[in-house]
Design brief:
Elements: H1 3-14, H2 16-25, H3 29-51, H4 54-71, H5 81-107, H6 115-118, H7 130-137, H8 140-151, H9 156-163, H10 167-186
Helix pairs in contact: 1-2, 2-3, 3-4, 3-5, 4-5, 8-10, 9-10
Organism: Pseudobowmanella zhangzhouensis
Family: Belongs to the sigma-70 factor family. ECF subfamily.
Protein name: RNA polymerase sigma factor
Length: 188
Amino acid sequence: MNSTASVIDAQQRFDPEAALISAAQQGDKQAFHRLYENYLGMVYGVCLRLMVDRALAEDATQEVFIQLWHKLSNFRGDSKFSTWLHSVAANVAISQLRKQRSWLSRVFSSEEVDISDVAAPEVEDHQEDKLAIWIARLPERTRIVFVLHAIDGYRHEEIAQMTNMAVGSSKAQFHRAKQMIKEWMGHE
């Protein structure tokens, strides 16, 4: 056995998650189901923060785990599994938002409806978390940048790559989000 394989074997013995990931990569459906159970909340949270709408977030979460089943072999362990999965979830949510926007623009002319208003945030009146309400009120692109940078810790270079925007645009959207939230805080 070569030294790389023995290091990986030793890591799996001491890291139950690594063993679970390895088993799922080899097609073990029970191991995959355990990964699903372990990460469902995190994935749904990422999708909900980016998409705001619960039904869309649930659909995106389901798509993340479908893609995970097909792409799990791509995970090499260069980063933590949770970090890699978080990136997959963010990319799926952003992709689904783009598809939704594209579909809406084909169905409705720009004179009929403001597309940014169609996917209005689903916020309950009794919700106490004001920051969550303010984040949900942000325009979609601004919200995505704010969530990815301020909450999820992505650098602007990473956000730019994920969203196909310039680094300067990512920084500008983040600044815009902070200004809007600060303004709303002043009106409370």
